[in-house]
Fold this protein.
Amino acid sequence: SRSDWSSDVCSSDLFPSHDIRQTLLAKNYFEKECKKLNYQILPSFTNFVNINCRNQQNARRLIKIFKNEGVLVSSSNYIHLKNFIRCSIGTKKHMKTVIKILQKNQKNAK
């Protein structure tokens, strides 16, 4: 029988479960904070999120703002995700920084 490589990796020392829990906690925190700011996050089981910026122009503008703040996010090449930016999940501290940038952007956009 063929073994499931993902369970082998997740149970090995290369992928400590503590790190997985910390990533999940940071992702849950980030998703809740984005919801408070009226940003839609696409559901996923990954270590990144896709944030709906409402249109492609806003997505490009946010990518530049994040870059100027030293935070790298990316756009998508998929036609259905042109209004989204992709943000990898870091520690909760990292995600708080991302939230602060989103909050500041909302205030400046009004």
Remarks:
- The chain is about 50% helix and 10% strand.
- The mean pLDDT is 86.
- The CA atoms of residues 30 and 95 lie 6 Å apart.
